[in-house]
Amino acid sequence: MISFDNVSKRYPNGYDALSQVNFSLKQGEMAFLTGHSGAGKSTLMKLIMLMERPTNGRVLVGDQDLATLGHRQIPYHRRRVGVVFQNHQLLFDRSVFDNIALPLRICGYDPDDAARRVRAALDKVGLLSKEK
Ligand SMILES: Nc1ncnc2c1ncn2[C@@H]1O[C@H](COP(=O)(O)OP(=O)(O)OP(=O)(O)O)[C@@H](O)[C@H]1O
Ligand SMILES: [Mg+2]
Predict the structure, then answer these.
(1) pTM to 2 decimal places
(2) Residue 34: CATH number of its domain
(3) Of 53, 79, 88, 121, which is the most exposed, with the fewest CB atoms less than 10 Å away?
(4) The domain containing residue 35 runs over which residues?
């Protein structure tokens, strides 16, 4: 469950990117967020993954009020939120394989199981030959 309760976001330069946003998504529900460039789509996503904090209002993810999560809890919160970035966010100091394996390693997957999953994912998108 994800819900926004009267959420506003003003950036430090005074720009109001979001103003009193309300919505609620149930578990398993699929939604599309659309809008013109600058409408605030990325800002909304950043509030869900705690890359930004709202100026006002409440963001709930899985019944948890994100305002209650401190800096140290952010990495744990992000393990529950899958995000595919427009600008990929790959780490250049490691291979394709290691980039994909990293979240699995962090989550404590058995290395053999993780390797199997990484190769299956690469194979699915025709990139298995690029793993190194
Ligand atoms: N860090 C920031 N500081 C100040 N203003 C910002 C910041 N980030 C975004 N904005 C402004 O907030 C508004 C919303 O930006 P946002 O990136 O959320 O829009 P978007 O809907 O994702 O746009 P696009 O479709 O171009 O990705 C824009 O006017 C943008 O210039
Ligand atoms: Mg955007």
Answers:
(1) 0.89
(2) 3.40.50.300
(3) 88
(4) 2-78
